[in-house]
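> @MW can you paste both from yesterday?
MW: sure, first one:
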Amino acid sequence: MNMAQASTKCIGSIQMLAAVIFRYPQVENNVNKNAAIQSAQLQQLLSISNVSLVASILIATILAYMQREVIPPRILLSWYYFMVLATLLRAGQIITYQRHSVHDAEAIRVRLVRFRLVVLVSSLVWGSAGWLLFPANDPHHQVFLILMLAGMTVGGVISFSADLVSAIVFSALLIAPVTIRLFVSGDSLLVSTGLATMLYLCFMVMSMLHINRNIFDNVTLRLEASGREKTVRASEERYRLLLRHSPVGIFHYDTNLVITYCNDRFAEILHNSIDRLVGLDIKTLKDQAVISTLKKAVNGNIGHYEGNYLATYSDANKWLDMTSAPFRDEDGIILGGIAIVQDISERKATEEQSKYLAFYDHLTKLPNRRLLVDRLEHAFASSVRTGREGALLIIDLDNFKSLNDTLGHQVGDLFLQQVALRLASCVREGDTVARLGGDEFVVVLENLSEQPMEAATQAEAIGKKILAALSLPYQLETYAYHSTASIGTTLFNAHRQTTDELMKQADIAMYQAKKAGRNDLRFFDPKMQASITDRVELENELRKALDRLQFQLYYQIQMDSSNQPLGAEALIRWIHPLRGMISPAQFIPLAEETGLILPIGLWVLETACAQLKTWQQLDFTRDLVLAVNVSAKQFRQSGFAAEVRDVVQRHGIKPSLLKLELTEGMLLENIEDAIATMSTLNEIGIQFSLDDFGTGFSSLQYLKRLPLDQLKIDQSFVRDIATDNSDKAIVRTIIAMAQSLGMAVIAEGVETEQQRQLLLENGCVHYQGYLFSKPVPLDEFEALLKLG
């Protein structure tokens, strides 16, 4: 055996030892059994202790005598003195334990621990011999010492094998010192002897593990045997109680299929009494379904039945699970059968419900995505057989999220249920209506015309019927609600699309319907796929734009009534090396969808604050306020306030010169969080402006709670202020409202002097628009300021 193998085996034995030591406390987490095992261990340890004590003192005497010529007398006598003391200590402990027995679990455990401590003392004395009595230059006496210690190790294994801890401690501490002495000697022969001694210890440990396991198993078996008699005596009573109070029905019957015994549960399952069931001839039952199962037991086989059963006397209709087995005497002769019966009616109902839920939406009772895919496969197969076209319609409800947020999920669920009923009423028999999830539904139309154009016309007619039905008013509890839907449609036949491709095409068409203004139906156009591909390419390029420094801030000046500059709004522009300038309307929604708006928004904030720092050092720009648009996703980040504060502090700007522009939608989704975030930043001086004010539908009730500094009148109201009295009234109302709340007002989209004059007459003195300047790069903006 080479050293690598020996080391591996040694490590393996140590791992086994650790497993055994840590497993012992888990042997049947039972205090009484553990105490009994420990008590048996102690008894076995004490039973051979007298012999081991005599042997120990004799070997110690022989060893001392033989080493007298090579070890100084003072060391030799001192060691022998301590050996006698250790032996007397063990002898006193053994006599005490043998005279005074204990039965308490804790007392037994304490005795075992104390026994181990005395073994520890004895092993330390014996182990010291490997160091103190080891002659430096006398190989004969060295070998004699090693052999004596090896012999004591064997004796320790035998004496302490009942307790693995004692055996390991004694052997390890006895061998370790002499092994170390051999290793540190520097002599190659002694080092090799040390290795052999270490391997010897490992083999002894493995032997101890084996012997201890056998002893432990024997003790356990004896304990189990002692308790087995009690178990046998109690088994008959337990069996009787078990039968009577078992949660399953049990009955015995003879070879003539006459019931000879049944328990309470069996009578309960059949809604009958034990007296009436005992003696019943099973062959006369109204429902004969179980007869063959019960006969199998009489014929020596196991029988099983699961199915519906109608009771003879009570007419109880149950779903039963029954197993029958032969009942034999001591000679193996079949006396009849025993059957176990379970009422699984509830479980069966649950399984059926689970199967239903696996294929149907629990809210609307419509097929779910899983069943939809199966129906589509059948529709494809039907198209192959008939040559007819089919159509897939994906229906998305417009503004469903707003309904959920404002009226709650309970009302939203009621709305979805009503939508499902209307959809089902719009299609033909044999068509499929399914719910994908959320507010998305699917309709599969089969057996349309063989001609694609005519099939498209048929699909469009059903789609328009659906749009009309879904646009009718809904009564949701006490709420009257109006809604619309957007539908994407694509045709399929036997030769082209897969299910995934079909769903993707209809989805693309549905988004085109939404983009066109909603409440519309669109068919999939292959050109749409090219648009989607272009969008994917644009997304990939957008991910690289920040690192490639393709973004730039443009600035649109904001003026007061005396044509003095107040500040500017920072507007991001994407200057693409191949596509040129890409409109924010094209890439900002894409950034929102992909999450790229977060790093882009941070870049805008960093760049704006860096520019403010530069402006603070120039006389003509020192007091300019810079407005920065914040996206909804960016504002709702939990660390947004801390991020803004960090940027402002890092650039060392006046917080009051930074104005964050927010929209109504991002504030109203979670008004309390919005107020908390705004208040945190407002406290350090950062201003807030509400962009596009007046275009929302519920902002007025929250306006007074928000820590706003400015309202921004949307350009849609400014555009026709000179010709539209409604717009003029809205603008006047916004200005009056802002003044009453102590907020400033700025109008965006001011393009003519007439618009500016009308705004001024109504009290609006801050403006932004093409009348003053379009958004321009930084150098043009600063040049504009210098012109005055």
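MW: second:
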Amino acid sequence: MTTTTTRPGLAAADDKWLANKLLQAGFGGPDCDFPECTAARAPRPKGKPGPPPKFCVQHNNRRDRQIAYRAQERLKKEQGAAPEPVPVEKAVARGAREEQVLASLLPRVLTALEAVHQGQQAGADTAAVAAHIEQVTSDAGEQVRQAEERREEAVQDAEQARGEASRSEEAADHARTERQAALLEGACALREAAAADQRAAADRAALDELSESHRRLRDDHHELTGAHHQLTVRNGELEQSHTTLTGEHGRLLAAHGRLQGEAEAQRSRLEELSSQHTRLAETQRRTAAALAAAQSENTGLAARLDEVQSHREEVTAENGRLTGMLEEERERHRQEVAALRAQLDVAPPAADPETAAGHGDGEAPGPGLTDGSERTESDEDTETDGEGPAVPLSIIDLGVHGGSGWTLVRYESDHSSWRVLRDGEIAGSIRPVHSLHGTSLLGWSARTGSALPVQPPLGQKYFANREQAAGAVVRDGLRRPPGTTTAAVAEAFTALGEPRQNALVAAVIPLATATPERGGRLAQLPRAVRDAALRTALRVPGEQELQQLTALDAAALGRSKEARLLLGALQDLAPADAQEETGPVNLGTIGGRAWRLEPDPAYTGGYRVLADGAEVGGIAPVRRRKTDTVRWTAEHRRCTLGHGPAWAGRDTAAQAVITAESAWVPLPRLDDESYLRIPAWLRSNLYGAAGRVDVRRGRLAQLQPGAYRQQLHAALAQARRTAACRLRGQHLAVLLDAAREDLGAAGSAAADRLYEVIQEIRAELVSGAETA
């Protein structure tokens, strides 16, 4: 047998099972791991889990554990795997302690082996297990006996070693080796017995598990057999059903083909009937419209006939009354003439004072010599206290129509009536019509310059408002040529163009209607200046009138709002004194486009900005006062750039237009289908915003040129039809390119909302076009 010199304490420490058995036997277990210490290890504290301490009570602290760890590491480095020398004293002490452990442990081992043997005999049926246990028991007894003999020999050797110091170490080593071997053999025997016990228990558990598995498999086999039988029956039924369904499917396919042919025939018939119904509906709609128009025309003609008859009766009655009055006047004059002749015959002739003064016999008396009772009403209208023509109470500009300027004028003598003037001449009149009690307004009536009534639209007795009545007079006047006595209009006024003419007329109206009671400082200006303003407000200014107006300055007009507007409008009549160039200006190629400035015929000194020959904006010089520096305004696609005249020179203003055009994203073509694919919520927002603006008054009613105003009004009318209306490109493009100032005044919430919705639609449309 080969033995090695190993400390029993270390062997027990390495063998957990042996250490556990030693602890169960009541011994302290292996020695302390502290160097040079032979004391037993400290017991495990009660209630504290984990492994037991490896040090004694004295050395079971952190500092001593660190010292022991460092000593072990140092010893391993120095000696490597060499066996540790054990002094004789330690060997003897440990041998004595191990002898006590073995002496107390052997009876327990034998008892445990006997119990294991009896349990194996009672629980196992195989002869192999019993023979193995018997063999293990006999081997363990033999090993224990041999260990006991070796122990006795070791004791004897130890006693001899005490007397002989020179041979003590060898004897101690031999005894230690023998004891260690005996301990190991006993431990091995115990391990084999425990292993046999565990194997027997495992065999029993495996046998039970196999039995249970066999029972479960048998039950599963029976269940699967029954399920297989059921599935076989079900498969036969399904095969029979499949055969039946296959035949039914063939019949259904044949019926489907037949029905599909019939459906195609019915569909073509339905389309034919639908187209026929559409044609009939269109015919019915046209017939109904024609019938309604005929009925409306018949109603209007009947009403017109009644009015003509009533007017004829009124004229006949008036003629009869006037004829009677004329006869009465003639009779009265005949009587007066007869009386005067009688007086003339009786009285002597007398000298005429006027003849004596040298006035001549054939002159008629002037207006100042007429009797007060013979002064006509027209004289009162045209004279006011000997100061010249009366000042109108109000003037409304109707714009330019048919090459003529139209205005509405109301004087104090007109009461509630308005005169419609064409280039300063009366072309008609309008007046409100009230009820019999005068409490409610029924509408407006209109008459031409020859006092003939102008008929309202079909189905209406009166015009709805003043603007509609004035428009009817204008349309009637356009059918006739203008008067031959029209005054010559100054070329400077004509050269302004329609937009700036409108601005100038609107600015001079407060000066033309100024009176001491209303007008403030404007009423203090000379009468000649106010007359010039009146002729300008009537759109018939002469060169002299324009010179009088342009001679005004801020000191004469004051600091009122009307004065500032008038100065700004008069500035158009006096552009920059000196211009660098008066002809076209070539700006070169910028951003891949050819840019050019062309003189603007509608604004003296201004330019139209052209990109590749297409107009994209305009610039114009502005001078607030005669002493101010000339500055420039810039406009890009009807949108004013900056605030007022924000540009110091022509080139900077043109560059602002070029920059705005570079950032501007063009819309798709007018026939693009993307206009019809705008989301419904945006169309609904446009419907609501368009319904809040009024095209009959404000800036929308005064947009110039007139063609653009009509296009914008038509687009808004289309947007106001219904929330689900899909606008096409020809209408929607006009709205999307409209500037903010075209939609209303600066503080208008309705115009702001409409412009915001338009920009949302434009962004959606442009982003969709870029994605496509």
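> thanks! The CA atoms of residues 517 and 523 lie 9 Å apart.
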